[in-house]
Amino acid sequence: MNFLKLFLVALAPVMNTLIIAVIGAILALDNIGILRKSTKKHLNIMVYFVFTPALLYSCLAKIITWRSLVMLWFLPLNILLRYIIGIALAWILAKITRAPRHLHGLVMASCAAGNLGSLPLVIVPAICKGRSHPFGYVDSCYHKGLAFTSLTMAVGHIYAWSLVYNILRIYTPKTNVVKFDESTKLEEINNLENFSKCSTRALAPIEEKSLSNDCIDQLKIECKVIDGQEKKVQVQEKSSIIKQLNILLCDKVNLKALFAPALWGAIFGVVIGIVPQFRKLLVGESAPLHVVQTSIVMLGDACIPAMILLVGANLLKGLKGLGKKIPLVVGIIVVMYIALPTIGIAIVKGAVHFSFISSDPLYQFVLLLHYAVPPAVSVSTMTQLLGVGQSECSLIMFATYSSAPILLTLWCTVFMWLVL
Questions:
Q1: Quick one: fold of 3-177+261-419?
Q2: What is the model's pLDDT at position 324?
């Protein structure tokens, strides 16, 4: 198959994504106002808590088996290498462009976390369904493509919220906000304030007679508390150390974000896929609980259109300040669409040469696609959660996604030409 035909095959799914994104941008215009700020917020919540876990569960439960997991062992490693290389290249880029320190995390996140969810799930099945695709029979290509892209989405989500989120958090400017436990710390502060007031009045000899009974009672209570504290210093020190360790661990690793709804959907999907008893119970037209599986599949089908609509709506923010930070934006585009795909070709071809992966052309194509996608939509969500670099993130998203129809299509064409 010549290069032009491969280009047309790769262009169709990218144009599908672009058209839906443009519709999302139109719906977010002030004159139309359908995707307003509140609407985007609620739709984002639906995608995060409902659509994404349903999509991951339905795809993995139907396609993933124990045998396929063993065969696809290189896929999680390939994504991890993509993240590590992206972080290293982004650090060099931030030093060259002299980006402000609070944007270093955003640059690393944009280059490391690629859109391994919605784009591969759109591109690969669309290529398999297209005419004159080079990956064999339509049904076989479609089901294998769903398996590869579903596992890609699950692994990419885990890496994004465990690695990239904490990188963003580390580079977020620190604020002088002291966190207290509402049930204990505030009471201790109030008690200390009352004690200081009462003790100050007690030290004044002129006002000794004017001390109220309430203040005297409060002094007695505080003195008892102090005596009890002196007797239990070691216990309090041990408990304070445990509390500090818990706070340190919670600050360093965002376990709540790591165990997000999408991850639980992926876990349940893998468990049901690899356990034959669960698979027979839920998956298949003859399964007793097939209606439950069908309902989850219907919810998951809404994930990709909703995510792309949100991408298009958020890209409008990138139009503002497009002329600013040009060196940084151009550098990110070079990293995303030139450096990473080139390195990815060397890694995947090296793995094929040393027989680390099979010679399946579709599998190799998906592995190569990991290195050529624009930044993940979750990076925008992370900046909103942390309250840093939101306008710069919109600018980066606008520039990289605007370049995707041409550059991503070219790389998809090159990848198909290389694996055939």
A1: Na+/H+ antiporter like fold (1.20.1530)
A2: 58
